[in-house]
Design a protein that fits this description.
By secondary structure, this protein is of the alpha/beta class. The protein has 2 domains: 31 residues; 235 residues, TIM Barrel. It has 8 helices and 14 strands. The strands form 5 sheets. Strands 2, 5, 6, 7, 8 and 14 form a 6-stranded parallel beta sheet that branches. α7 links the parallel β11 and β12. The longest helix is centred in the N-terminal third of the chain and has 26 residues. It is globular and about 80 Å long. The N and C termini lie far apart (50 Å). The chain binds zinc ion (ZN).
C-alpha cells in the first residue's frame, strides 16, 4: 500500500517536472524556442533627409540604430534566413532570443547605413534582391551592385536571397505580376536570379520574398519547382516550427515605431 502511494507520488513528481522543465530551461537559455520573429525593413535614410515622413518603406537610420541596440542590450542574437532554413529542417526549435533581420529590394542604403550598425553589434541580416534592379541607380534610389554584394557577403554581415528577377512590378498599376504569371514563367524568373547569383560568385538563394507579399498556389508551386526552400510573405506573426515553409510571416517595421512598440513587436 505504502509502495503504491510512493509510486503514485513519483509519477506525479515526474509529470510536474516534465511540465515545467521546458519553460525553466527556456528561461535560462538552454532549451530551444518554438518561434522566432522575422523583421522586415526596406530603405533607410537619415532623419535630416525627412524622407520617411510620407513613406512607410523608409525607416530613419536613427530609429534603426536604436532598435538594433535594444536587441543587443536585451540579449538577442541574429539568425540569417539560410540558418532559419536549417533550424526549420531540424524541427527542434530555434536558439533562445533569436531574431531574423531582413531587407527587401536591395537598396544601397543597406550597405551605407545598416552594415556599419550591424557590424558594430555583431549582427547579421539577409537581403532579398530584385535581379533586374541590381546595380541600377536612379536619382532617387540606388541599388547594390553585384560587386558590392560579393564583398558584403564575404564580410559575413549580409547574405542575399531571391526577390524575383523581373517580377517586382504591378500589372495595370494594381496586380502584382507574380500572381498573374503562369507557373513556367515564375519558375524561369526565379531560376534566372539563382543563376545570376552563381555567375557572380554568391551563395545560391534558399528563399524568396514575394514582391508586395503577394502569392497564390501557382506561385508556391513554382517556388518549390525552382528548388527554393522557403517563401516569405508580409503577414504578421512569428515563424514557428509548425509554420508552412512557403507562407512564412514577417513583421514590417514601419517608420515612427517607438522602442516600446518595437519591443512588443519582437516579443509578440
Ligand atoms: Zn519588394
Amino acid at each position: 500500500m505504502v509502495g503504491m502511494r510512493k509510486g503514485v507520488l513519483g509519477i506525479w513528481t515526474a509529470m510536474v517536472a516534465l511540465a515545467i522543465l521546458p519553460a525553466l530551461l527556456r528561461r535560462v537559455g538552454a532549451f530551444p524556442e518554438r518561434s522566432v520573429p522575422v523583421l522586415l525593413y526596406h530603405h533607410l535614410a537619415p532623419e535630416s533627409e525627412g524622407k520617411y515622413l510620407d513613406n512607410g518603406a523608409i525607416v530613419p537610420v536613427e530609429e534603426f540604430r536604436q532598435q538594433m541596440e535594444w536587441l543587443r542590450e536585451h540579449g538577442y542574437r541574429t539568425i540569417t534566413v539560410s540558418e532559419l532554413d536549417r533550424f526549420l529542417s531540424r524541427r527542434w526549435g530555434f536558439p533562445p532570443k533569436g531574431v531574423v533581420i531582413t531587407f527587401d529590394d536591395g537598396y544601397e542604403s543597406v550597405a551605407t547605413y545598416a552594415v556599419p550598425i550591424l557590424e558594430n553589434l555583431g549582427f547579421r541580416a539577409s537581403v532579398f534582391v530584385i535581379g533586374s534592379q541590381v546595380g541600377r541607380n536612379t536619382s532617387e534610389l540606388s541599388h547594390l551592385s553585384w560587386e558590392e554584394m560579393k564583398t558584403l557577403s564575404g564580410k559575413g554581415v549580409l547574405e542575399f536571397q531571391n526577390h524575383t528577377f523581373a517580377a517586382h512590378y504591378l500589372i495595370d498599376g494594381q496586380h502584382p505580376a507574380l500572381t498573374e504569371w503562369p507557373e513556367n514563367l515564375i519558375v524561369k524568373d526565379l531560376k534566372d536570379l539563382d543563376n545570376a547569383f552563381a555567375e557572380h560568385g554568391l551563395a545560391r538563394p534558399v528563399a524568396v520574398a514575394y514582391p508586395y507579399g503577394a502569392y497564390n498556389d501557382v506561385v508556391v508551386g513554382a517556388v518549390k519547382e525552382a528548388g527554393l526552400k522557403m517563401g516569405f510573405t508580409v503577414e504578421r506573426g512569428r515563424v514557428s516550427t509548425n509554420s508552412d515553409r512557403f507562407r512564412l510571416p514577417r513583421m514590417i517595421v514601419f517608420p515612427g515605431t517607438s522602442i516600446e512598440k518595437f519591443a512588443a513587436l519582437v516579443r509578440e
